[in-house]
Amino acid sequence: MTCNQNPFRFKRSAALVSIGAIALLILAACAPAAQETPPDTLSTSTPAIPVTGETRPPDTQPSVTVSDQAVQAGSVLIQEVVSQGPGWLVIHIQDGGNPGAVIGYAPVQDGLNQSVTVPVDVEQATGTLYAMLHTDAGAQGAYEFPGADAPVMLDGQMVNPSFVVSGLPVQASPAAPTPSVEDDNPDDYGGGRDDTGYEDY
Predict the structure, then answer these.
(1) 61-166 is classed CATH 3.90.1310
(2) What is the pLDDT of residues 66-85, one digit of tens each?
């Protein structure tokens, strides 16, 4: 009989629960939606790879590019030089089909060098020359070879393309010796002929 004596108490409790549930729904609807990271952003990310300096792209490998040419104003022109560090572009003559003595050199910087002009000793130049890349391993800015500034090696080979030059000075040929006349004895010339044209026996 106790429950029947408070019929409105349960109705009021149920109403309060309903109002609270509606309030929670309203708050949830008004809250901003959480932003999700697109799945492809995470899947395509690549971790950074540290650069160690142990290898270089092919276009930064040591190289020398040169073409056949005429010597101009006592110099030759090297189209392109790629050097790993400061170095020297050295012109060697040909000696027995191989690089010989040095007749000129010019400094090159680290990386790409274009249109490198190298003064040469044209009096010592041969028709075929070698454009050889050397290091600058000794005193910086001082060419030291033989010595510390050795030729650059790539895969066990020197970087030294050959090229043909023209416009070198022509070496003067020695004059032919002139025979000397010891005396004017006609018997020494003409087989001993006399004035009549017959041989004198």
Answers:
(1) no
(2) 999 999 999 999 999 999 99
